[in-house]
Structure formats: C-alpha cells, structure tokens
C-alpha cells in the first residue's frame, strides 16, 4: 500500500484523513505517491470548502 507519507507531509496527510478530505480507495490505499488529476484536486478543494463552511 502507498500510505506512508514523506516526513514533510505527514502532519498534513493525517489532518486531511481526519477531516474527510483524503479518503483511501476500496483497499484503504491513499496512493500518496501517485499523480493527482484535476478532477481529484477539485474534489479535495470541494471537501475543504465544505469543511470550512
């Protein structure tokens, strides 16, 4: 699984998971070292927007 964040990103990844911004796939894989599509980035931004409303 690709769930081990680099040290500089660890806190942000934990925060995003705890706040429902980053979800794992059906196997619980966050794919932290994969490229992010524009669609995925928009979903992250939307979830953050909803969290802050």
Which properties best describe this structure?
2 helices, 53 residues, globular, mainly alpha
| SSE series | HH
What distance separates the N and C termini?
A: 33 Å
Q: Portion of residues in helices?
A: 40-55%
The total of beta strands comes to 0
Low-confidence stretches: none
Give the structure's gist in a few sentences.
With 53 residues, the protein is mainly α. The chain has helices at 10-18, 38-52. The chain is 45% helix and 0% strand.
Characterise this structure:
By secondary structure, this protein is mainly alpha-helical. It contains 2 helices and no strands. The longest helix is centred in the last third of the chain and has 15 residues, at 38-52. The mean pLDDT is 92.
Outline the fold blueprint.
Layout (H helix, E strand, L loop, with lengths): L9 H9 L19 H15 L1
């Amino acid at each position: 699984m690709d769930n081990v964040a680099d040290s500089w990103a660890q806190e942000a990844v934990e925060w995003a998971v705890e706040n429902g911004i980053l979800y794992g796939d059906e196997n619980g894989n966050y794919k932290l070292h994969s490229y992010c599509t524009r669609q995925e980035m928009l979903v992250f931004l939307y979830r953050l927007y909803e969290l802050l409303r």
